[in-house]
Design a protein that fits this description.
Helix content: 40-55%
GO cellular component, one term: membrane
CATH superfamily: Phosphotransferase system, mannose-type IIA component
GO molecular function, one term: transferase activity
Strand content: 15-25%
Number of strands: 4
CATH class: Alpha Beta
Radius of gyration: 18 Å
Organism: Liquorilactobacillus nagelii
Order of helices and strands: EHEHEHEHH
CATH architecture: 3-Layer(aba) Sandwich
Pfam family, one: EIIA-man
Strand order of the largest sheet: 2-1-3-4
Structural class: alpha/beta
Number of domains: 1
Keywords: Transferase
Shape: globular
Length: 145
């Protein structure tokens, strides 16, 4: 099975997985969330993630989304995947957000390689913008407020 692996500092990855369940409930069993807990060492994270990998069984592949490229959680998870000889066929992207994760979980089984990366990163980038609420309210029409 191909899993979407969310990696973060703290509980961000768990919260993102919970949010994904609202949009893609049928795919949430294909999402694994792992976060570096406050006060936890990277060695403890590595051991915990090795246990998760063992529970998933063999023959799986991964798309990894990390909160920060180069951050301890992501580098630790990548090291564990490399030790398990899984990293070379894994796509790893950083700067995860909800639109990126939603696209990744929906497209991971239909697109691959550069096409997958382009689709997921495009969605992530296009979702980053300032929201400017309309201020064209008519002062006489208070019901619209």
């Amino acid at each position: 099975m191909k899993y979407l692996l969310l990696v973060s500092h703290g509980e961000f990855s768990q919260g993102l997985k919970s949010s994904l369940a609202m949009f893609a409930a049928d795919k949430v069993e294909e999402v694994v969330a792992v976060g570096l807990k406050n006060g936890e060492s990277v060695e403890q994270l590595a051991d915990r993630f090795k246990q998760q990998l063992a529970e998933l069984g063999t023959g799986n592949s991964f798309v990894v989304l990390g909160d920060i490229i180069g951050g301890s959680p992501l580098t630790t998870v990548c090291n564990v995947l490399a030790q398990a000889d899984i990293l070379k066929q894994t796509i790893v992207l950083g700067g995860m957000n909800l639109p990126m994760a939603l696209n990744a979980v929906m497209l991971k089984d239909t697109l691959s390689g550069a096409d997958f990366v382009q689709a997921v990163l495009s969605e992530a980038q296009s979702s980053l913008k300032e929201f400017k609420p309309s201020s064209d309210l008519d002062d006489d029409d208070d019901e619209d407020i």
